Please model this.
Amino acid sequence: MSEALIEKARTVSMTDIHNIVSDYVHLTARGKDYHGDCPFCKQNCTFTIAPKFGMFYCFGCREGGDPIKFLRLMTNKNSEEIVTELSVKYNLA
Ligand SMILES: [Zn+2]
Model:
């Protein structure tokens, strides 16, 4: 798997973070960001995504990062499997 493909998948998924995360977490808009219940620590409304930065962060358990990390934690798949799925989803290959 090439670094270029990984970078492309990361960049595209960051611009689409709201869609990706909302498959797993019910998100409600609050200003520029979205909040929801954290899927990792289960606390109410501590989980935030910032579409401007393409990142998620939980104020409860302090888990955070890009959509590839989110999908890794949610699905227990490795980065390579996730990048492969993203490259199919977004027609990157
Ligand atoms: Zn949390």
